[in-house]
Amino acid sequence: MSFHYALVDDLLPREEFDRRVEGVMETSGDLYDEPTAAMIVVRDLGRAHVKIRDVGTGSSLSCFFGKVVSTTSPHEFQKGDGSTGLVADILLGDETGQVRVVLWDEKAQAAGEVDVGEVLEVIAKPSPRLKGEVSAMAFRKAACEISCAMSPDRRFLPPEPVAELEARVIEIGKVRTFTRRDGSEGRMVEAVIGNQGETSRLVCWAPELLEGIEAGSSVRILGATRSSKGDGDEYQLDEKGKMIPLERDIEVPTTGIGKVPDSGFTSVNGVVRSAGPLRSFTTRKGQPSSVRNLTLSDGSGEVALVLWGEKAALDIAEGDAVTLYRVQVRRGRDGGLELHAGRGSAVVLPGGEAEPVDLEGIVIPTATGACLEVAGDCHPVGGDLPMGRLVRVRGRRVRRTILPAEVEVREADPAGARDRLARFRAGLCP
Fold first, then answer.
1. How far apart are CA 122 and CA 99, in angstroms?
2. What domain range is 274 assigned to?
3. What's the whole-model pTM score?
4. β pairing state of 301-308 and 288-298
5. DSSP label of 381
6. Residue 195 near residue 167, CB atoms below 8 Å
């Protein structure tokens, strides 16, 4: 019963779990065997077995049945502490979908005892890296039947080499660092690219390849691979690849809002008719993030727009024209369509002449981010500025936002602070 108790060990002690299992068996007149009775107790505690499409949702652990579609042999890798580990994969399926189950160390050794077509009962936790992947905490063979497709979904196939690709670079993200399995540090950058046929995410493991490439330019990409992920297709490029600028312009088409598909990804442009405040929240992984709700319209219709993460903090207000690429189409709570822009999406705002600025004021938080309060006026400001402090900012203003080049923290001015507070109170009173 240890297998099923692992699903509820945070809810009750083992002795109580065993007692409930025995009670279910006695009540059934010994109709239920011990594993079945254990499953009933787990279900009554709200941790029932789920279908593969629901794996990774709800509690941190999931228990499910799946038929073995494919397996890989264990292979060694170097851990961060210098020791050698083992890893193997099993692809499981049911009538609702497929999931890759990763087996580590001693569990990986057991992968050789699993045959295609067998059914496994698995307890797993979601992978922190990939959607559609879980790490096995425990698994065992099960005596039940499952009907499912025995060919791997496209997203589980190995990356496909792409000899050459011409595309427009729509948006380039910030260079990020990551830690490899061997403990070394690497760098990567994500971009959104598109052409007449598609828009896709590009993951570049050699950020230097994008040096000198600006958003809006057209390029020829050599040596990339293409794979299908849970949130759409993706290209990857490493140090062996190349990005060659093109002189001609590659257009990326958009769809009228009235013709947005019911699902999948799309690209649209329109005018912001309403813009709600920025709201902060904590993700399931415990990370801070933001969300903002807007309404976008064009001559063909109107649609709800939801911005996530860094996209939510963009300088967007009512009346702004905006173009969005590779946004996901979902059904909202009211059944209507919604466009969701987050990681892997691009939000393009009309450019403007950069205006030099030299201002002094108090950095204050607002619903849409940090602002510089100057003589009663609020100026949106980028960068990491000290909240509540008097600062002098030199830089440039692009659209409404000040992009600091130099920030000088000034000594507090009590009299000035009282004046600002008085003006602020006056603004609140009719």
1. 11
2. 257-348
3. 0.66
4. antiparallel
5. B
6. yes
**Pairing verdict, β 75-78 and 62-71:** unpaired
Cβ(222)–Cβ(241) below 8 Å = yes
How far is CA 52 from each of CA 72, 91, 95, 120, 334, rounded to the nearest angstrom? 20, 11, 8, 12, 26
pLDDT tens-place string over residues 4-51: 787 787 788 888 988 998 888 888 887 888 878 888 888 888 777 888
Torsion (CA) 144, 146, 152, 155 in degrees, nearest 10: -100
Name the H helices within 284-401. none
Average pLDDT rounded to a whole number, residues 347-371: 82
Total domains, the chain:
4
CATH code for the domain of 56 = 2.40.50.140
Kind plus residue range of the DSSP H or E element containing 427: helix 414-428
Cα(99)–Cα(54) distance, integer angstroms: 10
Q: Which of 326, 349, 348 has its CA nearest to residue 339?
A: 326
How remote is the C-alpha of 185 from its chain's centroid?
22
The rounded distance, in Å, linking the Cα atoms of 275 and 295 is: 7
Q: What are phi and psi of 22, to 5 degrees?
A: -60, -35
Both tokens assigned to 291:
């969300």
Based on the domain organization, do 272 and 328 belong to the same domain?
A: yes
